[in-house]
Amino acid sequence: MENQNLLQTKINSIKSLVGEKNELIVREFVIGKSSSMDAALLYINGLTNRQTIDSDVLRPLMFKVEEDLAVTDNLEDIIIKKYISISNVFIEQDINKVALNIKRGKSVLVFPGTAKFIIIDTIGGEYRGIEDPINETSVRASREGFVEKLETNISLIRRRIKDNSLVEERLVIGRRTSTDVALLYIDNIADINIVNDIKERLNAIDVDGFSGSGMLEQFIECYPYSIFPQSFSTERPDIVQSDLLEGRIAMLVDGTSFVVTFPVVLFEFFQTIEDYSERTYLGSFTRLLRYIAAFIVITLPAIYVTFIKFNPELIPLKFLGAIIESRKGIALTPFMSILSMNLIIEFLREGGLRLPSKIGQTLSVVGGIIIGDAATKAKIVSSTTLLIVGIATVATFLIPNYEMSLSIRLISYPMLFLGNFLGMLGIAAGWFFVITYLCTLESYGVPYFKFYKNDLKDIFIREPVWKMDKRPEIIPNVNPTRQSNFRNLFRRKKHGN
């Protein structure tokens, strides 16, 4: 009876720490066939694998224990070594840590006459399987994408990087959510000062909780009011692999299918994993197209308004005649026409994101066609204006990173206002302020808009991969060499034959 009271007291203590209203399952049982030793197994329903609990914990303890464990001094060690067949099992004495492990999906074995608890890894529940990345598709790259389970995401990275120097550091952030966060970096490549800076920022966070890696980024970023992203988020393990090998740090958050890497530079957002799978000239050509597309998105509408309003003499006569003809009877000015059509496109874009995928695609395509045709027939906008807006919109699709794409589209609005009121001088001033601002921006101590001579191999164009023997100099690292010049061996062999 005394043992039963002691057991119930320990169960009540754990219940109070876990929360009385949580669906905590308490399975009391007797160890062994002939023994009278009481025990209890505690877990939260829905977070554990009940089949594992039944077959690997309860069954052997209830039906396979022949000895009298009540008289043993090292009860927990005997049970772990002889009767529990689960690989991840350990002993814990801190009852607060016991409650935290229960909330994470583990089970706890409780005994009446000891201050120790056995923590059993029975984490289960339903998770989304590994699928093709939805937002970052590729033709020749991997088909694996991150999921919402932290352990699965870490395993996807460890499968690709089998280096002993790959370090994994765990943190728990959030007073109420207790969200698991993992930092991954390669110890003999990454700069330890940046690693320590990021860890200090994460440890300083004191919030009830957060809903994903996007909020966590905003808590620790250096320039919270900047329109440019200061970290790179991706759902592709191969991109994280490349970033880690360059000396960056990866942050994984439980419950989020996006992994964040830092520090970053501007040019990283114009690169894709497919650039390195294609031939050199093809990869370089597509990368140049992305930079041209960014320039078009920011500048083309503003240049069109400037030419129409201030400098029509710069337009060739053949085009000028067509523009004048298209603008006959148009109610709105070129500036208001472009602004209104840009806003309508933003409506369609945002609406398409919030709807189911098939309906969203239909809305974006059909809505754009119908509204554009109706606006032209109603003499609200000219066909030339619609063409300019359409080109700028299509150009945004060439920018591979969604966050950077939105940032560039946002810059186009003040550039449009500057072009309308100040002409070419306003556009030049706008670009001056943008470039100046980029030069002052940093990402965790790394200049955002800076490159070294050796880094030009992989910025505007992409040289052959066998020539990229050095890591990017802009990213601090302790080991700059990533490959030897092995192509010389091929040349010597060829000449020797």
UniProtKB/TrEMBL annotation:
Gene Ontology terms: biological process: spore germination
Q: Name residues in a coiled coil.
A: none
Alphabetical UniProt keywords: Membrane, Transmembrane, Transmembrane helix
Q: What domain of life does the native source organism fall in?
A: Bacteria
Question: Which residue ranges traverse the bilayer?
Answer: 249-270, 291-310, 380-399, 411-440
GO annotation, cellular component aspect: membrane
**Pfam families (UniProt xref):** GerA
Alphabetized InterPro entries for the sequence: Spore_Ger (IPR004995), UPF0353/GerABKA_families (IPR050768)
Family recorded in the similarity comment: Belongs to the GerABKA family.
Question: Per its record, how is this protein called by name?
Answer: Spore germination protein B1
Q: Which gene encodes it?
A: gerBA_2
